Amino acid sequence: MRPVVKIYWIKLLLGIVAALACAGYMIVANEVPQVKPSPEPFPGNSSLFFNSVSIAIIVYIVSYYLLKHQFVAVMQKPQKIMTTGIGAYMLSWIVSWVLLYTILATQV
């Protein structure tokens, strides 16, 4: 398997790991939303979303440095390590996070 393909799949799986970390943060911080009728259009906490995005960005940056250390010798450009799989990472993170958010919100 080529190094670019390995980096792509690693980042895809790390997106799921980041979503699990965000769900763990929701549980630890006791910010699990409750589904109930509300006059507000969105009864959620906006700081929860921004904290989850921050966790996802931190996981991505840490993964970049770990992958750079491992794959810098076999890649032509170090920038390629940063850009490979960024879409797969974000898409897998957002889909997994929304799924976990929904599951946690409906557990009353």
Folded structure, characterized:
This protein is an all-alpha fold. It contains 4 helices and no strands. The radius of gyration is 17 Å and the shape is elongated. The model has no long low-confidence stretch (mean pLDDT 87).
Key phrases:
mainly alpha; 108 residues; 73% helix; elongated
| Strand percentage | under 5%
Overall domain count? 1
Terminus-to-terminus distance: 45 Å
Low-confidence stretches: none
Give the total of beta strands. 0
Helix content: over 70%
- The gross shape turns out to be elongated
Radius of gyration over C-alpha positions, nearest whole angstrom: 17 Å
The ordered H/E elements are HHHH
- Rounded mean pLDDT is 87
Structural class category = mainly alpha
How many helical elements? Answer: 4
Major sheet description: none
